[in-house]
Design a protein that fits this description.
single chain, Heat Shock Protein 90, 5-stranded antiparallel sheet
């Protein structure tokens, strides 16, 4: 697999969530994603960026445009050094929320992408990696 381009940006305040969505949209367009796939990726990014800011206390969004000879993909990773997720099984249950949201952030994001990887531990922060292939 070849990393064609990559970058990183902070996700600390509300404006950074907006910038994360804009970056995801631009990168998806660069990859040649169809509108429906672009919309799914931007929606997942929006949910995860907000989680990073609200629950993780802020962090970073790292991105990579990938080529594996047969296809192109956009991989975006959110990472924070917040409190982590105490009960991952519960957090990945549709409808459950630790805040005032609808409880669709993590599970919704997972359904919108081709690959979803979550690493977390109480007191150790959280890393969520999503990939959408073309």
């Amino acid at each position: 697999m070849i990393v064609r381009s990559e970058g990183s940006q902070p996700v600390l305040i509300e404006q950074d969530v907006v910038l994360a969505r804009q970056t995801a949209r631009r990168l998806a367009q660069e990859c040649g994603m169809r509108l429906i796939d672009l919309t799914k990726m931007v929606t997942a990014v929006s949910e995860l960026a907000r989680n990073t800011m609200v629950y993780g206390g802020g962090g970073h969004m790292d991105w990579q445009i990938l080529d594996d000879n047969l296809r192109t993909g956009l991989r975006i990773t959110f990472r924070d050094e917040g409190p982590g997720i105490a009960d991952l099984k519960l957090a990945m249950t549709d409808g459950w929320t630790s805040g005032k949201g609808m409880g669709l952030g993590l599970t919704g994001a997972k359904r919108l992408v081709d690959e979803f990887e979550l690493d977390t531990a109480p007191g150790a922060g959280t890393r969520v990696m999503i990939t959408r292939w073309i």
